[in-house]
Structures are given as C-alpha cells and as structure tokens.
Amino acid sequence: MKRNNKKLVWIDVDNSPHVLFFRPIIEQLRKRDVNVFITARDYAQVLDLLNLFGIEYKKVGRHYGKNILLKYLGTLLRALELIVVVFRKKPSLAISHGSRSQIIAGKILGIKVAAAFDYEYAEFIPFFEPDIALVPEMIPEEKTMSLKNVFRYKGIKEDVYVPYFKPNPGIREKLGIKSSKIVIAIRPPASLAHYHTLQSDKLFKELLELLKDSEKTYIIITPRTKDQEAEIRSQWKEEFRTGKFYIPAEVMNGLDIIWNSDLVVSGGGTMIREAAALNVPAYSTFGGKVGAVDNYLESIGRLIILRDETDIKNKLKLEKRILSLNKSNEVSGVLDEITNKIISLLN
Predict the structure, then answer these.
(1) pLDDT at 5 over 70
(2) How many C-beta neighbours within 10 Å does residue 94 have?
(3) Residue 278 in contact with residue 297, Cβ under 8 Å?
C-alpha cells in the first residue's frame, strides 16, 4: 500500500467567526497538497456554519457556561477529549484562533502549536502558551512580550475572507427587508466570554430602547446562542410580535446580513470589523477594554465606539446607504501571507 506522506494540519474551530476565517485557509492548504483535519466545538453557530459551507469536521466538546470554574474545567475536559481524537493522527501542526483547549492538547502531545488572536486582552492558560502567535500588525509589541514567537500580518483577520465575499441575491427576501426601512443589524454582547462586562449589556438594552419606537427602522438581531435568543425574545415580546425586531430562523453567512444592512451595531467582536471591511457604517457597544484593532478602525473613521447612552443618542446615524460592494480592504494578499506562514511552520 502506498503511504501518504503529506503533512497534516489540525485546525480547531471553537467559535462562530473562526469558521469564515479558516474556510479560505483550508481551501488554500488543500490546493497546496496539505492534509487538513478539523475539530469543532458545539457552541453558538459553529456547527451550523461548518455545515452551511460543506466543511467536514469532528465534533468535540461544548461550552460550559458563564461560571469561571466550570469554564476552566470545561477547557481542560475538552483538551482531554481532543487528545483522544487527535492522538493517532499525529499532525505536524495545530492551529486555531485562540482555542485554549487545542493549545493544551497540542502541548501535551508535543505538537507545534500556532494560535491566532486579534484581541490583546484575551487570556491564555498559564504554562500553556502557543509556540507561535499570529496577530494583526497594529497590536503593540508590548502587548505580546510574554509570547516567545510572534508573527504579525498586515491588515486585520477579516481581510483573510471579506475580499472574496459575493452577496447572495435572495437574502433580502429571506430577511423580510423592505426597501423603505433603514435596516440595522445588531449583534448582542458576548455574554459567555471572559471579557464580558455589564456595561455591554446596559448599552445593548439602551440601544434597543432607543430604536424600538422608531417608525423608519427594521431591526435584525443575530444572537450568539439559543439561550441568548430566548432571553431577548422574552424581553421584547411586543417588538417581535409586530415584526419590528427580527431574528433569522436559520443560520446565514453573517456577511450577507451585514451587506444588506444600512448600519451594523455590535457588542464588540468580529461583526463590526466585518462591517468596516465591507464599508458598512459600523458601531460598537462593547463596554470592556477596547483592543488595538478597534482603536485602529476608529482612528481611520471606519468604526464609531458608543461608550454611553449619550453616544447612542448623538452618534448613531440612522441613514439609508447605497448597497455597493465597495470593500475598504486596502491590503492585498493577507490570505496568502497567513497561508505561507502555516506552510513555513510545517517545513
């Protein structure tokens, strides 16, 4: 029997935005004759998005909720589950966008571990740090001094996939969008994240209170989890009954929702950076420490950070926009840059 000598890259996807980030990377690696094995955590829209894009994966583990102790125990338990799944595959490289469980499993198995991240206040497990970190160039060096090997890529992580986005022509009908309305896509705060703050929740509620009585707006809300969706529906029953607020019934490519919106408001995270990359007006209601990427986008006018209720009332511009695929990505080759780095780590 002929032996397959191709090297194996193990990719772990543990949060919804990482599906879009790794999708073109997986395609590029396979085109370059690299085997790829994907594990995925059952959390948020991870599995639904992988299924939507036809990406094969092995489901391993889940999220363990808000409790800090359970978070740590869940991370360790999932690391053990990953070790059992991956042990016989003997990958040459493990890579994720900040999967703590994969970092632990990879270090225990003696696999070279790479981790991308774009928020410098994210925390790694002590004594389990990646062999190499991949970060956007605007993250200051002093914020990564504890890491022994750092690769800085040009642009932001959304530049890996946003330039290749093509709108789905049937999405507006699916979302119930009427051309006369100002369409606002809203992403609630990441209530299960370690960096979550009560200020983010407060700003989210103040935002919906402001918008619910406006006759000219149509609100599309994209909850992060089923529990969060149930909580939002319970708090805003009348708005959902009248069709003022809308939650998509099925998982969609978030870029389609963003591109068909007049503006995007998110409690931090990937969605506002995707909006910025698509030249859609983007607002953040993240109440925690603002990271270097968001500060950079704010400095070039591609993001407005709403820090309190006054900002929401004074800075939020409810205006229609011309739908045109005019992406703001001025950095070419970010996908190739990261793919080339992964190939070099294999060699």
Answers:
(1) no
(2) 28
(3) no
Are 38 and 9 spatial neighbours (Cβ–Cβ below 8 Å)? no
pLDDT tens digits along 320-331 = 998 876 555 444
Note whether 42 and 64 are within 8 A (CB): no
CB neighbours of residue 184 within 10 Å: 22
Residue 126, C-beta contacts closer than 8 angstroms, at least 6 positions apart: none
Tabulate helix, strand, coil % of the chain (nearest 5): 40, 15, 45
Nearest residue to 49 (alpha-carbon basis) of 262, 222, 220, 219: 222
| DSSP code at position 38 | E
Q: Give dist(CA 294, CA 298) in Å, integer.
A: 6
Starting at the edge strand found earlier in the chain, the sheet holding 282-284 runs 245-246, 217-221, 182-187, 263-266, 282-284, 304-305
- Backbone conformation region of residue 60, classed left if phi is above 0, alpha if psi is from -120 to 50, else beta: beta
Residue 263, C-beta contacts closer than 8 angstroms, at least 6 positions apart: 182, 184, 185, 275, 280, 281, 282, 283, 316, 317, 318, 319, 321
Distances (CA, A) of 161 to 17, 26, 154: 11, 12, 14
Q: What is the pLDDT of residues 278-311, one digit of tens each?
A: 999 999 999 999 999 999 999 999 999 999 999 9
Query: What pLDDT digit, counting tens, does each position of 167-224 carry?
Result: 998 899 999 998 899 999 999 998 776 677 889 999 999 999 999 989 999 999 999 9
Task: State the Cα–Cα distance between residues 71 and 125, nearest whole angstrom.
Answer: 12
Q: Is the pTM of this model over 0.85?
A: yes
How many Å is the maximal CA-CA distance in the chain? 70
| β-bridge partners, 93 | 9, 112
- Tell me the per-residue pLDDT of 7-34, one tens digit each, with 9 for 90 and over: 999 999 999 999 999 999 999 999 999 9
Beta bridge partners of 133: 115, 150
